[in-house]
Amino acid sequence: MTQNIQIGISSCLLGHKVRFDSGHKNNKFVVDVLSQYFEFKAFCPEVEIGLGIPRETIHLVNIDDDIRCVGTKTEDLDVTDALKDIAEQQKPWHSELSGYILKKSSPSCGMERVKIYKKSKQHTAPSMDGIGVYAKRLMENFPNLPIEEEGRLEDAGLRENFIKRIFIYARWQEMVASGLSISKLQTFHANHKYIFMSHNQNAGRALGKILAVKGKADAEMLNDISQKYLTDMMILLKTIANRKNNVNTLMHIQGYIKEHLDKDDKAELGDVISDYQKGLLPLIVPITLFRHHFRKHPHEYITDSYYMKPHPSELMLLNRI
Fold it and tell me: Distance between CA 294 and CA 6 in Å, rounded?
């Protein structure tokens, strides 16, 4: 199990009083639950660039087709470049992270749907397609890093997906740190194959083909293969695993244990999978039944697979999807 998983986070979400009004946005799920599994690295770019507490609010404004982050009262307060620079300065510790949780709607930290005002039409409704300046540079620098906003974590599917991506990315980092090889990459793929299948079966197959290397790969080739694999894997994982794909994955896994089940066990498993498919049961129910049967009849390939244990059971993420 990967230890000391480091997650970046907007400071206000941990209860730090760093907001423009001297307040915070303490997030109970983050503080009470996720803090038991992750080591958080709090950061507030607005404070780090020297804006005080309390302070004038800032917002994104379209000035001659250039998105700037400026003061709402002071016309010459422009912190756009300062926020970009502070993001660049944090790259050393950003590179050690396995995920990042950002404050929604923030002109510095918002991941999406941040308001953009028009300088010439201040009284018109703002567009909702902006990205916080700090967040944008962070995502440009680390496009494969799992990143989410705290507001989106209220959705059970997005929450499970994000945390699953964190654990997968952390295992990837651990593997890379141990020294890359085609064999390690192939083992990594085998251990995550059914997770990939539950997200997109065709994209999962394409990932496997990246690793179909004949002969020995030199260092440059190995680096190219691993970067291609990582990029495609993280794109694949952003697609939420739906019921149809999970049912398909469960049916594939069932093949490893079918011969060990009697008529009643097969019928029960079929009924549970069917009820999950209809939305009558959460995913944890068929998963728990599969775990029961594989404890009695273990199979090495399934034992090493992360599909039925993508994250700690105590998080109860599979109970809500």
Answer: 32
